[in-house]
Design a protein that fits this description.
With 232 residues, this protein is mainly alpha-helical. The chain contains twelve helices and no strands.
């Protein structure tokens, strides 16, 4: 619902409660949510700290799902900090397992391949992510479509890129999922700017900025403000 201050309060209270208990699975889950929350805030240092602790607990307890969740989020941090090869190394073995959580893992793996300019792998994995999530996990198709749009755009398929992004936007708005909507608006605006539509890009960036500010997602705010300066 976009109430980030309330989300922070609930998560931090939950962390205190779970740390006073005995279930490492509950602690790992809470830490993973805190890590993901701090990715949204743009605080990658805190995100990494929470997620590494969550992963260590998951590995100790043998909790496969918690391991996948924390590893997937850490891979996003890796990509955002310019370590796409590390992200690839985290996710490839997990995605190859039987009964892997592919709706979560494949979009991030495709994003890592894209950052490494592995065109064939990026295309194949992004397409697979979209096909899988459309059928199995429609909510996760939002991120899969965002990454697929990025892949199409990188390799010269502008119409397909815009189609994927707009499909993702439609789903994000229907859920609603404001953070994903803002990221897709940001991607759509970047696409328009690359293709010469400065006015459309400015409009999209402003819409994304408004949502990021409302959410308190400072990382998104800073990225979009920088992008807007380039369109001035």
């Amino acid at each position: 619902q976009g109430d980030m201050p309330r989300a922070r309060e609930v998560l931090e209270r939950a962390e205190g409660l779970t740390r006073s208990g005995t279930s490492s699975a509950d602690i790992s889950s809470c830490l993973e949510y805190l890590g993901l929350f701090h990715i949204m805030l743009g605080d990658l240092v805190s995100a990494s700290r929470y997620l590494r602790e969550a992963l260590a607990l998951a590995e100790t307890s043998g909790d496969r799902q918690a391991n996948e969740n924390a590893s997937n989020d850490l891979a996003q941090v890796d990509i955002l900090e310019g370590r796409a090869e590390a992200a690839r190394a985290r996710i490839e073995p997990l995605a190859a397992r039987q009964d892997a959580e592919l709706g979560m893992l494949l979009p991030v793996l495709a994003w890592a391949y894209l950052e490494l300019d592995e065109e064939n792998l990026a295309r194949e994995t992004a397409d697979r992510a979209v096909e899988y999530t459309r059928v199995q996990e429609p909510m996760k198709s939002v991120e899969a479509l965002r990454v697929q749009g990025m892949v199409f755009d990188r390799y010269g398929e502008a119409d397909k890129a815009l189609g994927a992004i707009q499909e993702g936007l439609k789903i994000a708005r229907s859920l609603p999922y404001p953070y994903a909507e803002a990221r897709l608006l940001q991607e759509e605006a970047s696409h328009l700017l690359r293709h010469g539509d400065q006015e459309g890009a400015q409009k999209g960036f402003r819409q994304a900025l408004g949502i990021f500010r409302k959410l308190g997602a400072q990382g998104g705010v800073e990225e979009v403000e920088q992008a807007l300066q380039q369109t001035a």
